Amino acid sequence: MTKKITAAITAVGGFVPEDKLTNADLEKMVDTNDEWIRTRTGISERRILRGEGKATSDMAVPAVLDLLSKRGMKPEEIDCLIVATVTPDMVFPATANIVCDKIGAVNAWGYDMSAACSGFLFALTTGAMYIESGRYKNVVVVGADKMSAIVDYTDRNTCVLFGDGAGAVLLEPDEEGYGILDSLLRTDGSGRHFLNMKAGGSAYPATIETVTNREHFAFQEGKTVFKFAVKGMADISADLLEKNKLTGADIAWLVPHQANLRIIDATAERMGLDKEKVMINIQRYGNTTAATIPLCLWEWQDQLKKDDLLVFAAFGGGFTWGATLVRWKM
Predict the structure, then answer these.
(1) Whole-number Å distance between alpha carbons of 89 and 145
(2) So which residues are the catalytic ones?
(3) Backbone conformation region of residue 309, classed left if phi is above 0, alpha if psi is from -120 to 50, else beta
(4) Which residue has the higher pLDDT, 122 or 317?
């Protein structure tokens, strides 16, 4: 009898820019202060990619090269590369195409996936399906965003939240029950009114008016988004446990999207998890959108043990949300 093929994470890579934007720096830019930011979000600083022409691919490339180096794999061995991002280098071609070109992944095909802060989870589930089908052996999933490119640094409600970064994982076939075991993914397009970037798409192409009205920046109605995010991320994580007949005691780590410390705490509490079992780096990087979950894995990989059960959980603009159950192989 043929064993079931699952998609195991066999390597993790990450990259964050050197330049830091601290709360003290933001105090000089907008009407805010360090205590207000830390109390409401948990963020103390975030990384910013600076330099003319520097783009999301310039963070994704070192993240993928880091991953390949750890695995001892050549770029030519990659079959497919998916980049989850809302800040592509250009509208087209896809950032995934640019990354493949820059690293020399000449045998890979790829594309971008846009699901805001849930993008990495959506791309991970998609990449896992390619492995499970038996079609591909090496699939790279990247979460990368240069949020500083679409953040309005005159808007104190949003500019304190976001940072830049990239993380990547390698998926390979497994027949021993490791890897992505289950996912629950959701969308609700009515949320587009509360978290979006209004202009730049086909509905509102760039004009002098859209630029003047600052409509090419991320917009968020904070209270509404917070309410939906707390319920969405916490509920779906609990639902994933129930579906798989698990409790918080069975989970080694919660790997949550790093949007807000209060949302993370609510999710852990709903799952019955102690804070010691929750990966948190929001204080150093802020919300890097699609990069938050893989960056957590990148930082915590030395603490992960083979057979650990992990839950990845995210909530993003539009709205998108989801949770994924993973058995760690490395």
Answers:
(1) 10
(2) 117, 257, 287
(3) beta
(4) 122
